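Q: Could you fold this chain for me?
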Amino acid sequence: MDWFRAHAIAAAAKPLPAESTSVRAAVGRVLAEEIRAVTAVPAFDTAAMDGYAVAGPGPWRLSGQLLAGPATPMAPMRSGTAVEIATGAVVPPGAEAVLPYEDCECGGDVVTGSRGRREHIRRTGEDLRPGEEMIPAGRIVTATVAAAAIQAGVELLQVHRAPSVTLLVTGSEIITRGEPGPGQVRDSFTGLIEAVAARAGARMVAGRHVPDVRGRLEDALAGADTDVIVVSGSSSAGAADHLRAVLAGGHATWHVKGVACRPGHTQALAALPDGRWVVSLPGNPYAGLIAALTLLEPLLVALGGRAASVGGVGGLAVGPSGPSDPSDPSDPSDPSDPSSPSDPSSPSIWTNTINRICPVTGEAKLVPGGVRIVPVSGMRIVPARGSASLHTAAAADGLAVLPDGWTDGQPATVLTIP
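A: Sure. Below is the predicted structure, expressed as structure tokens.
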């Protein structure tokens, strides 16, 4: 399956159901319903400046002082009178304007000055009326959105539920701490998936190591009570790769069963009968990172109700590349990937377009959590070190998705790296 089609399938997942939550707890979530003001903003006529509230023509006789805070009912001001007033205080009935201190003088109990064209009074409902729409559905609740909602008397918001994620890191060779012995490797992937999940607005609930035993993998999948289960490793057709057989035995529905890209072509996306999603990522860390950005991130973005986008960066300039670079199109297969295009046992997933995923360096305006098209020059493709190495990706500014036949200077999609 083509990379862009696979990405689009993951991004087309139906959002999770909405739930009601407090405004502050909704920060970072996506609105399932628009926000409407409960109260008027301002809720009362209020002074926009420190100065004197006046009624009628001047000069004005000073008759009192008003500070911000709870106010008792006030009698209407009479023409020719003034009240000293603080910003945010309730403007008494009958006041026609607030004269800022800098525009008037007060001698004894007499205020003199000239009224300008601005009255410096914020009238009731000037910003928002009760029931007026403030923020449309589909927007992410930022801290500022939450503050505006609270200001308008809103206490609860309807937001899409944040996707929950379980990560299963498979492989009898995996260790989580200490110096690796012969045949052992450190788990470098859990932190990556946590970052991808957080960037997509999801929450990582659990992460565990699962040895290469089919029964253990079956038990781990059955016990993962989250919206999405990410399985790192066990994605190919080797003797220790059990995931596809386990999913077939569990009557899973395949949405993506391999992607025509390299590295990372053994990635897959399936749905269990109970609605849980399973994202299969190659065990090699660099290939797994690419697969996470291809399938996992757009899936989580969609489940959380966020708008997904795939764009690109134009004017890439090809940099140094050698025959050892697995992204080199002259290399017919990726020897670091256990199931390559030249492998006859590989699933029939290939089209005429095989996307190369290449680390790139250079200045580009990339949107956090997504990508967009921007005119930029000077980005360079750098040679990767194989699907197991994260070194080049760690030093890169993005990952370029290059279709078969791409040439220097053509636009290309660039993914942000967590």
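A (continued): The longest helix spans residues 285-303.
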